[in-house]
């Protein structure tokens, strides 16, 4: 069939009114809002201490990404010069070991590998506090409650007897990140329980033990782990 049979004269797709060609005429503030909406959702980057690393190891060599494949800036950076400028304003290159990924520290989440021992946990936090990009800009960290009570993490089921020394040490490590706003504690599959927060035989809720609100699953894609959020003031 000839092209004219599919698209009669005057109806060529390149000439339809559905194509928006006035983008550059929009005010810069509106264009920036559109680019902002096109940015990807917050992502999770799993970080752990490198094998054989010591406390005196250079920070960027002492840490590694669990996924060692490098990642370029989001595809939005390839649209035009304006979009690239906005993307690179948000996303900065973070090199751990031999891997570089572009990370938005204001939204992306750094997940500390859940099965680290206590010593390795504090070593990883120490390394992170030595990297200016992470130390000065990280707002969201995730920890696995598999760490248990020893690092100083309180949990109503996994353990209530938390050492004040351990809790103080953990808080001292977290205090090195001035912009940190949120900690996300991840309860692993083997530790999932259903709670009844009422007094036995009644419908009266127990004080100070109200369930935490659920988190939208598309915001933090961490497999099937149950998630709990604790805001840090």
Question: What can you tell me about this protein's structure?
Answer:
The longest helix is centred in the middle third of the chain and has 12 residues, at 118-129. By secondary structure, the chain is an alpha/beta fold. The chain is built from seven helices and eight strands. Strands 2-1-5-6-7-8 form a six-stranded mixed β-sheet. The chain has a two-stranded antiparallel ribbon with strand order 3-4. The model is unreliable at 1-14 and 210-233 (pLDDT under 50). The protein is globular, with a radius of gyration of 24 Å. The protein has helices at 3-6, 28-38, 59-62, 81-90, 118-129, 132-137, 164-174, and strands at 44-49, 63-65, 92-96, 99-103, 109-112, 140-144, 182-187, 226-231.
Spatial shape: globular
Overall mean pLDDT stands at 75
Number of strands: 8
Spatial order of the strands in the main sheet? 2-1-5-6-7-8
Beta percentage is: 15-25%
Number of helices: 7
As an assembly, this protein is single chain
Give the distance, in angstroms, between the N- and C-terminal Cα atoms.
Answer: 68 Å
Computed Rg: 24 Å
Spans of at least 5 consecutive residues with low confidence: 1-14, 210-233
What's the order of the H and E elements? Answer: HHEHEHEEEHHEHEE
Class from secondary-structure proportions: alpha/beta
Q: How can the largest sheet be summarized?
A: 6 strands, mixed
The helix fraction, in percent, is: 10-25%
Organism: Thermothielavioides terrestris
Protein name: 780d9dfd-6215-450b-a557-ded44a84f02c
InterPro entries: 2EXR
